[in-house]
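thought: user wants a sequence for this fold. calling inverse folding tool.
action: design(structure=
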């Protein structure tokens, strides 16, 4: 079976690729450059560097052509930083009379007598 993987150079992705290849499957992976320090990848895995977050749907579909399986193994990566949250999305919990309130409503389960 042909399997496409996003995140095949990380700990989980590389181990999943190794297991799939050992079971006779063909694995291709999309991963961020550069390779993580000390990464030991299965030599049979086809690897392409790129950022799936910057790809169009059509580009991603192109990677899936001819594949019967898909593995998403991308995790948190210090090489990619997301945008800061907008302040309008951040709500603060305020305390009044020993009870926290959220959006003006008491959170009764958290009240201190």
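)
observation: tool returned 113 residues.
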């Amino acid at each position: 079976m042909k399997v496409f993987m996003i995140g095949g150079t990380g700990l989980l992705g590389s181990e999943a690729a190794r297991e799939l290849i050992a079971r006779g499957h063909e694995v291709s992976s999309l991963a961020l450059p550069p390779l993580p320090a000390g990464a030991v990848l299965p030599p049979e895995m086809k690897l392409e560097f790129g950022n799936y977050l910057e790809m169009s749907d059509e580009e991603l579909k192109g990677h899936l052509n001819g594949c019967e399986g898909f593995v998403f193994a991308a995790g948190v990566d210090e090489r990619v930083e997301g945008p800061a949250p907008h302040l309008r999305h951040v709500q603060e919990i305020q305390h009044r009379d020993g009870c926290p309130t959220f959006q003006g409503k008491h959170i009764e389960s958290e009240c201190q007598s």
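thought: summarizing for user.
answer: Here is the designed sequence. The longest strand covers residues 26-31.
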